[in-house]
Amino acid sequence: MRLSGRLHHDPDAAGQAGGLREPRGLGARRLALMAARWAILTGALVLAVAGSAPAHSLLLESSPGAGSVVTASPPELSLRFNNRIEKKLSTIRLRDEHGAARPATVRVADGSADWLTATVDVLPAGAWRVEWRVLSTDGHVVSGSFSFRVAP
Fold first, then answer.
1. Which residue in 9, 26, 50, 106 has a CA-CA distance of 20 to 30 Å to 62?
2. Both 87 and 131 in a single domain?
3. Residues 27 and 91 in one domain
4. 113 and 146 inside one domain
5. pLDDT, averaged across the chain
6. 49 or 140, which is more confident?
7. Looking at residue 93, which CATH number applies to its domain?
8. Tens of pLDDT, residues 80-107
9. How many folded domains does the chain comprise?
10. Is residue 4, in this structure, part of any structural domain at all?
11. Residue 147 has pLDDT above 70, yes or no
12. Is the pTM of this model over 0.90?
């Protein structure tokens, strides 16, 4: 038996397809389901973007301060961030004006969870660059640097 080439083009096409096709366009129920899916996906995307943006750590203050001139070598470097950080996985590096590294030992157990502190040896006069790298509690690694000068 041969079917006509007009299958699914007749006015009774729904009957030819066993009642599985709707003869004209999408049904109201299907449109409502598609609209609901889009609303859920859009809402999830907005929440994901809004929830993650403020979680990254930002340096709020430091001692010595960025761009400051101190008259004596600081015994420690202290950095305060806008949220909690994972101290065990965070670092502070200190470099002189020629780029040579100087020891800076992070004190993991000290202070509140938004402060990172490192002890340093006595620093001679000159320009110093503090390079920091912290792991935010949201899992993102954030880094930055600032300079200060020792001028007795």
1. 50
2. yes
3. no
4. yes
5. 83
6. 140
7. 2.60.40.1220
8. 999 999 999 999 999 999 999 999 999 9
9. 2
10. no
11. yes
12. no
Q: Are 143 and 58 in contact (CB under 8 A)?
A: no
C-alpha distance from residue 109 to each of 84, 86, 94 (Å): 13, 11, 20
Its domain, for residue 132, covers 56-150
d(CA 135, CA 86): 5
Indicate if 60 and 107 belong to the same structural domain.
yes
**Residue 14 banded pLDDT, cuts 50, 70, 90:** low
Contact 100, 65 (CB under 8 A): no
Q: How far apart are CA 31 and CA 28, in angstroms?
A: 5
Residues 47 and 122 in one domain: no
Sheet with 101-102, strands from edge to edge, namely: 69-70, 141-150, 126-135, 91-96, 101-102
Token pair 């809004």 in the structure block, residue: 50
Which one, of 145, 135, 144, 143, lies nearest residue 84 by Cα? Answer: 135
Residue 1, amino acid:
M
How many angstroms separate the CA atoms of 45 and 51, rounded? Answer: 10
How far is CA 68 from each of CA 25, 71, 115, 131, 146, rounded to the nearest angstrom? 70, 10, 19, 15, 10
